[in-house]
Write a structure and sequence with these properties.
Blueprint: H1 2-14, H2 17-44, H3 47-70, H4 76-99, H5 101-104, H6 110-139, H7 141-161, H8 174-187, H9 189-205, H10 212-219, H11 222-244, H12 253-278, H13 284-313, H14 319-326, H15 328-346, H16 349-370, H17 372-375
Helix pairs in contact: 1-2, 1-7, 2-4, 2-14, 2-15, 3-4, 3-7, 4-14, 6-7, 6-11, 6-13, 8-9, 8-14, 9-13, 9-15, 9-16, 10-11, 11-13, 12-13, 12-16, 15-16
C-alpha cells in the first residue's frame, strides 16, 4: 500500500516519469547495500529480534511521512528521503524474514511454505492496492501512510508473541563471512543461474509496475484504476502460484519454470502494445489488466519454483547470506524503475516496457538452450 501511495504522491507532485524512476532508485540502492550486511546480521543474531527492530523503524518512518503529507509541506525530496531510509531498513529485514522460515517449519514442508507465503503476499497485493487507490481518492495519501505505519506496529506485536528458537553462532571475521556466502553461490552453477535470471526478471520485467502511473495516465483511469491495475498483478501472481504448486514434483519442472519466464516476456509485449496502440480506447484498461494478470501468473511459475529450490538446497549456516543476496531481487523492481522511467521520458513508456521484455526473452532463451542444469531440473529429486 505504501508503495502505491508513494508512487502516486510523487507523480502528483511532479508529473515526471523520471521522478518515478528516482523513487525506485532511492528505494533500491540503499536496500541492495544494506541487504549484503543484512544477510550477515541474519546469520549472527536472533532473526525475530532483527525483524522487531526493522518493523519499528519502518513504522516510525511512515508515520513521519504521513505527518509531512497531512500538513501539506511534503516535497518530492521528502518522499525520496523516506524511501531511501525505508530501503535501508528493508535491506536488513528481508534476509531475516526469508531465512526465518526454517525455524518455523520442517524441511519437508518447504515447498508448501514457499507457495503459501507467496499466496498470502500476493493476495495482499491483489486486495490492498485497490483499497489504497480508493483511500487515496477519498482521504489522500497521508491516510495510507498512517495505516501502513499501524500495520508495522501490529507486526511487531505478532513477532513479540512468536517463539522462535535461536542457535548461537560463532562470531568470525565479518568480511570472511560475507565471502563465504558469495563463494557458495559462485561455486554452485544452479544457484548463480537461478539468482541471475531472477534478477533479470525483476529489473527488466516486473519493474514496469514502478512506472504504472504513466500507463494509468495514458488510459485516463485515475486513482481507482491505478489501484485496480496494481491489484491485477496480485491476482495473476496468486493464480500462477496455485498452478505451479501442482507441478513442484514434476519431472519437467525446469522446462515448466523457464517456459513461464518466456511467456511472461511475451505478456509484457502485449501490455506495451496495448498502451502504445490502443491507450485511448474504451477497452484499453481491461486489456492492460489482462496482460498484467498474465505476466504475474507466468513469472510466478519461475519465481516460486526457483525460490523453493534455493531454500531446499542452501546450507542453514549460510542461509541468511545466500538468501540475502537473493533478496536483492525485490530491490531490483524499484531500481529497474529508474531505467524504465528514464527510457519512458526519452522515448515512451510502452517502448521502455517492450525493451525490458526483449532482455528477459533473450536471457531466458539463452539459459534454456545453454544450460542443462536448469532446463533438466527434476522436481521429483528435490
Amino acid at each position: 500500500m505504501y508503495f502505491v501511495a508513494m508512487a502516486w504522491l510523487v507523480f502528483k507532485l511532479s508529473g515526471s516519469a523520471f521522478d518515478l524512476g528516482l523513487l525506485g532508485a532511492a528505494t533500491a540502492l540503499p536496500t541492495i547495500a544494506a541487504t549484503l550486511a543484512g544477510g550477515l546480521v541474519a546469520d549472527r543474531f536472533n532473526r525475530r529480534n532483527v525483524l522487531i527492530v526493522t518493523n519499528l523503524l519502518a513504522a516510525a518512518l511512515l508515520a513521519a511521512l504521513a505527518l509531512l503529507d497531512a500538513t501539506g509541506v511534503v516535497k518530492v525530496w521528502h518522499v525520496l528521503a523516506v524511501a531511501g531510509l525505508l530501503g535501508m531498513v528493508h535491506g536488513f529485514d528481508l534476509p531475516a524474514r526469508i531465512s526465518i522460515f526454517t525455524a518455523l517449519i520442517e524441511p519437508h514442508q518447504m515447498m508448501s511454505a514457499v507457495a503459501l507465503n507467496s499466496i498470502l503476499w500476493q493476495a495482499t497485493r491483489m486486495v490492498l492496492p485497490a483499497l489504497g487507490g480508493i483511500l487515496i481518492a477519498l482521504g489522500g495519501t497521508a491516510v495510507v501512510f498512517m495505516l501502513c505505519s499501524t500495520g508495522f506496529i501490529v507486526m511487531i506485536l505478532v513477532l513479540i508473541a512468536l517463539a522462535v528458537p535461536h542457535r548461537t553462532r560463532t562470531r568470525s571475521n565479518t568480511w570472511h563471512d560475507f565471502i563465504d556466502g558469495a563463494r557458495f553461490i559462485g561455486q554452485n552453477r544452479l544457484f548463480y543461474l537461478l539468482i541471475a535470471l531472477t534478477w533479470i526478471m525483476m529489473f527488466f520485467g516486473t519493474s514496469y509496475v514502478q512506472i504504472m502511473p504513466i500507463f494509468v495516465d495514458i488510459m485516463g483511469s485515475e486513482e481507482r484504476g491505478y489501484g485496480i491495475l496494481i491489484s491485477a498483478t496480485g491476482v495473476g501472481s496468486v493464480l500462477g502460484t496455485i498452478i505451479i504448486s501442482r507441478f513442484q514434483q514434476n519431472k519437467n519442472l525446469g522446462r515448466i519454470m523457464l517456459g513461464g519466464a518466456l511467456l511472461a516476456a511475451l505478456s509484457l509485449y502485449g501490455f506495451a502494445a496495448n498502451a502504445g496502440f490502443a491507450g485511448d480506447s474504451s477497452y484499453a484498461f481491461m486489456v492492460a489488466s489482462g496482460f498484467a494478470i498474465l505476466y504475474s501468473a507466468f513469472s510466478s511459475f519461475y519465481l516460486i519454483s526457483s525460490m523453493t529450490i534455493l531454500q531446499l538446497k542452501v546450507p542453514d549456516e549460510l542461509r541468511g547470506r545466500v538468501m540475502g543476496i537473493h533478496s536483492i531481487t525485490f530491490s531490483l523492481i524499484a531500481l529497474g524503475g529508474l531505467s524504465a522511467g528514464s527510457l519512458a521520458a526519452m522515448v515512451s513508456a510502452p517502448f521502455a516496457v517492450a525493451a525490458g521484455a526483449t532482455v528477459l526473452l533473450l536471457s531466458t532463451g539463452w539459459m534454456m538452450m545453454r544450460f542443462n542444469t536448469v532446463r533438466q531440473l527434476d522436481g521429483r529429486t528435490l
